[in-house]
Structure formats: structure tokens, C-alpha cells
Amino acid sequence: MLGSTPGWPAVLADGPVVLRPYKRSDGRTWSEVRIANQKWLAPWESAPPGPWAEMNSARAFGYVYQDMKRAARRGESMPFAVCLQENGTERLVGHLNLGNIVRRAFSSAYAGYWVDSRVAGRGVIPTALALAVDHAFGAGGLHRIEVNIRPENKPSRRVVEKLGFREEAYHQRYMHIDGGWRDHLGYALTSEEVAAEGGLMARWRRVRA
Ligand SMILES: CC(C)(COP(=O)(O)OP(=O)(O)OC[C@H]1O[C@@H](n2cnc3c(N)ncnc32)[C@H](O)[C@@H]1OP(=O)(O)O)[C@@H](O)C(=O)NCCC(=O)NCCS
Fold first, then answer.
1. How many domains does the chain have?
2. Comparing C-alpha atoms, which of 17, 6, 8 is closest to residue 113?
3. What is the pTM of this model?
4. Which of 2, 93, 134, 185 could form a disulfide with 199 if both were Cys (CB 3.0 to 4.6 A apart)?
5. pLDDT at 149
């Protein structure tokens, strides 16, 4: 049903990392970051057909924004802009989506993410993912979060390994990325696995301390 998504919209934060719904006015920054990061992002994303600069222009964001908004309204996803709040200003530096949400007996979602290479290595995405997973298991009413990663993507595998996701599958020719059908490793986490520790954010705080 439209407009009745548990846990959406939401704003989540830990230190300088803020997750919030996208705004129409994010187009210019989103486009600048995406275009500056073409080489960094293209090997890992299922991109729409067309030149990168065009698919990631401020104009294209209008369509991306509408798509995200529609899917979120339908309860199919929770698309967060990942921002850094530093020196009194907030800037968009990445993206984290809980997508393919299926409820009832499955109550599961897939997480996808990226961050601007200029802020990589600061733990922004592990923090964002931990916040989003706790939110999904709490207000979002979900039970399981899955992340699928190309075996070659060591930085992304480190994100889920540091958070203690279980490696549980090897999907052959799983997704069409960067010109071919790419194998993926499947990682997952269910709410029971973090409940006793007070959630994934509590676990992540202990890991990074
Ligand atoms: C994967 C990704 C989201 C990680 O985000 P992040 O906020 O940098 O995560 P972390 O800070 O925890 O760093 C993760 C790992 O990246 C590596 N790393 C750190 N700084 C880096 C840099 N400047 N450049 C490349 N890799 C770096 C390290 O191996 C680090 O692991 P470590 O903590 O054991 O040292 C980010 O690398 C990215 O956006 N990559 C391109 C898009 C992508 O792969 N998306 C995921 C698809 S499944």
C-alpha cells in the first residue's frame, strides 16, 4: 500500500555520518561526485546503458530521484543519501540503499552502497551500513539483510567482514556489471545474530575502538 512503509522516511546518524532521504536539490552534488568517481564506481555497479556523464548528469538525477521516491513509497526500498557533517556543513558523499524489500515470511532486503573515493577508508560505509541494518531490524520490521559483492572487490568485502556478516553463498554469473555477467559472493545477517550485542552499530563501535 502506498505511504505505509515501516521505517520510511528516516534520518540516521552517528558522529559525522548522516543518512537521510534524497532531496530534489541533491542533483548537482550527486552528479559532481558520480562523474568525478567514474573509474572508482564503474567496475562494481550495474549501470544503465549510455555514456557515464549523461547517465550521471544533474538532469539524469531527476529520473533517478523519481525512481527512488516511487520505490520507497511502494515499500520496495529505503534509499539513503550518505552525508558527512563536518565544519558546520553537510555534504553528500555516498549512497546506501536497502532494496528489493520483501516482507511477510521473508522480511528481507539487499544492501547496496558506494562512497566518494575522496573520503574512502574513513569507515563511512561500515557506519552507514550498521546504522541502516539496525534501523531495518528495528523500525523497518525486517529480519534479514543481504549483501552481494564481486570476489575481486576487496574494499567492499572488508566492509561486511568488519561488521561480521556471514559469507553464505557463491552466485555464479549473478549480475551484469561493467560489460559482463559477474560472479558474486553472498553475505547476510539476520536480526538474531546481533540482538544479543545490542545491534550492529554497537558491534561496529567495539570493532573500531
Ligand atoms: C566499498 C566501499 C563502499 C567501502 O567504503 P569505505 O567507507 O571506504 O569503507 P572503509 O573505510 O571501511 O574501507 C574499507 C576498505 O577499503 C580499503 N581502503 C581504504 N582506503 C582506501 C582507498 N583510499 N582506496 C581504496 N581502498 C581503500 C581498505 O582495505 C579498507 O579496509 P580496512 O579497514 O581493513 O583497511 C568503497 O570502497 C567504494 O565505494 N567502492 C566503490 C564502489 C563499490 O565497490 N561499492 C560496493 C559494491 S558491492
1. 1
2. 17
3. 0.98
4. 134
5. 98
